Amino acid sequence: MKTSAERGREVRRKLLDAAADLIPERGWTAVSTRILAERAGVAPGLVHYHFPSLQALLNEAALDVIGRVVAETGPLLERAETLDDGLEGMLGALDAFTGSDPVSVLFTETYLAAARDEDLRRELTALVTRFRRELAGWLRARGQEAPEETASVLAAALDGMMLHRPLNPELTSAAVAPVLRRLLTRPGGDDRRAGG
Amino acid sequence: MKTSAERGREVRRKLLDAAADLIPERGWTAVSTRILAERAGVAPGLVHYHFPSLQALLNEAALDVIGRVVAETGPLLERAETLDDGLEGMLGALDAFTGSDPVSVLFTETYLAAARDEDLRRELTALVTRFRRELAGWLRARGQEAPEETASVLAAALDGMMLHRPLNPELTSAAVAPVLRRLLTRPGGDDRRAGG
DNA sequence: GATCGACTTGGTCAATCGTCCAAGTAATAG
DNA sequence: CTATTACTTGGACGATTGACCAAGTCGATC
């Protein structure tokens, strides 16, 4: 038999999970309390018991998912020895995101919602900054020229690819890998393959 | 004295302009017929007289704006002699888009809406494909290696920058220009400045 | 067994939603 | 002057919205 508190946490979690499904499915501003409760399999009134507002629920759900993806990237990078290996690894991870899958769309929906919600923007900026810093540190440790600027461009390019993929069948990892590899260079080095 | 037809076209135009304002402002799914009519300064019933549905109005408004931006890019590229000059020009044009301005947000909102509307997706794909082809043709004419793939990555990177700019103050044209310039190379050439 | 507090239920509230339409205006064609 | 046509008005329709709440359930504590 579960305690009330345990069941409460479970309901909270179910609502957050349902939100993570529904935001990509219907769009941020089209997720309603009732649809949310129905998807989570709980009563409608629970939304405003566990969360101060619908917006607060959506913010927490989105930041949860994005935070999890960011947290997974660090270890993935550390496993790679060279710049080329790291790029390979990131593109491999990107293959899981077709641009139409829920996580890709959730990312973009959250970027947009952040333009209209100051709290969300502040927390999202913190997550994106952490990702960029990790990437820049990894690049610098491997001799990459202008690591901060390269990390900024690389992070933007990866999200841009998620945005374009559903509209551009040519945008496969295999096709873009040779192009993105040109971004990776070492100071003074003339070779375009910096990872060797 | 204006004819009925002239006034009708004017109302249609006012509705499309109001939609182009409101989609970025409130989000695609949060634009309502009444808000739209109020912003356009016309009666609510006119929305469904001039358009079959609210969605059709939003689609047309968004594709109008995006089509206009795409149409402006061709001439801008043609003016540039070298690869470096062209990149410079594109980054200059990108400076008009802070990522928070209405046009930037409208782009992203439309990408997302296209994931949920087949008609919109088809027409948006056509526009993006045209932009990519123009860019690829321009790159090829100036000796760029793998022009199609480079154009795909460049187009995605530019949209990605629009997405990241509000969250990343370091993402200025000046900071990213040297990094993006690495993307431009000629076959067999070892120099990273291909435009000279 | 009584009391407490956390959690849940099912519903109300005013406001807004997309769509549709009957009636009205006014410029044009016969 | 009389249709005819295009455009406009203001409101009606049922459905849905975010927020809120009184009443009820139930395990934990004394």
From TrEMBL, chains A, B:
Assigned keywords, A-Z: DNA-binding
DNA-binding region: 32-51
InterPro entries in alphabetical order: Homeodomain-like_sf, HTH-type_TetR-like_transc_reg, HTH_TetR, Tet_transcr_reg_TetR-rel_C_sf, TetR_C_31
MF-aspect GO terms: DNA-binding transcription factor activity; transcription cis-regulatory region binding
Pfam families, alphabetized: TetR_C_31, TetR_N
Segment forming the signal sequence: none
Protein origin, superkingdom: Bacteria
Domain HTH tetR-type: 9-69
Protein known as: AcrR family transcriptional regulator
Organism, scientific name: Streptosporangium sandarakinum
